[in-house]
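Exam prep: given the inputs below (a chain plus succinic acid), describe the expected output before reading on.
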Amino acid sequence: MTNKKIVILGTGGTIAGTASNAADHLGYTAAQVGIAQLVAGLPLTGNACELMSEQVAQIDSKDMDFAVWQVLAQRVSHWLAQPDVQGIVITHGTDTLEETAWFLQAVLNPERPVVLTCAMRPATALAPDGPQNMLDAVAVAAHAGARGVVAVCAGVIHGARDVQKVHTYRLDAFSSGDAGPLGYVEEGRLRLVRNWPQAPVDKAQAAIKNIAAAAGSLPWPRVEIVMNYAGAGAAVVRALVADGVQGLVVAGTGNGTLHHALEVALLEAQADGVRVVRATRCLEGRVLPKPGDAIPDSQGLSPVKARVALMLAMRGQG
Ligand code: SIN
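Solution:
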């Protein structure tokens, strides 16, 4: 009988990083070790699944962009179309992992698991966290009934919608906020506390399903993020509008509140045809809309994920 396959796609990050000194967790270079080498280093004897690997990109995830996302979505689609592939693991830098996870969930809504994993210490560290995170991610990808895009870090399983990097250096750097994690990986076994991610409810869903197959054929709309803060004004929004921005996500304070000067500029932009969405800069909770709100809320998405959703919605309608 043929074993089920798990495909591990490498994109770079600290998990593939190297430093000249094993005690150095800061002065390293991300995205140096190939995915085949990372997989070869895993102690996987007796695993019921066959592991395959493919290098899709080799970047520090601060440099992530839509071009890489399109290639990644295409490769995930390709592998998930093979009936003997049980699931996908993607190694990724921590810095934009949550954006990639949300992009893949929004465009693919996969029936099988797509598990992003990462590391906070480079591969050359005295005690690297990457190998254990990869083992945990493989356990999630191999789990019967697992589905959707999730992230695994420090033994915690997070859904694509809620996961956020919340710490700059701790190994357990991610949180799902007040939604809580999906579950935990405990010595290779899963303990689930929530359901696997389901499809995002989005009218543009059907249209954006083709995005993975259409790499490069359409330009992405330009959507930027602005923030509310004490003394926020109109100048940044007006400069962006003058520069041709097509969409704006505002990271409001509290329940999406806006300094009146910033709000005036955003309403002017909206009246000029710029799509504007209101999120919150708070790490937990969501913007609760009121009847008559002039600027639509982000449906619980963080500012960076609301930007991805707005770009997809604008392109899906294009
Ligand atoms: C990156 O995001 O690629 C570098 C930082 C990290 O992976 O922790």
